[in-house]
Write a structure and sequence with these properties.
- The protein has 1 helix and 2 strands.
- It is an alpha+beta fold.
- A two-stranded antiparallel ribbon has the order 1-2.
Length: about 70
Amino acid sequence: MLLQTLYQACDSANVDASGVCSAPIWVQVPTLIPCLSLADGAEIAVAILTLWALAWGIRSVVDSIHVN
């Protein structure tokens, strides 16, 4: 089980004139890389590898045209 780090925050609509939060909420810490399922990660990996292979193929064709 993955432990989640939570921190207390306040929606700007819940801050009164003196700056006190009337209804604090607990939210997850934002991350640079979102949590992905195995299927989502595999889908992204396949897309990256497909683009890489396509670029390599195009480069190979262009190089073979320039050699001849």
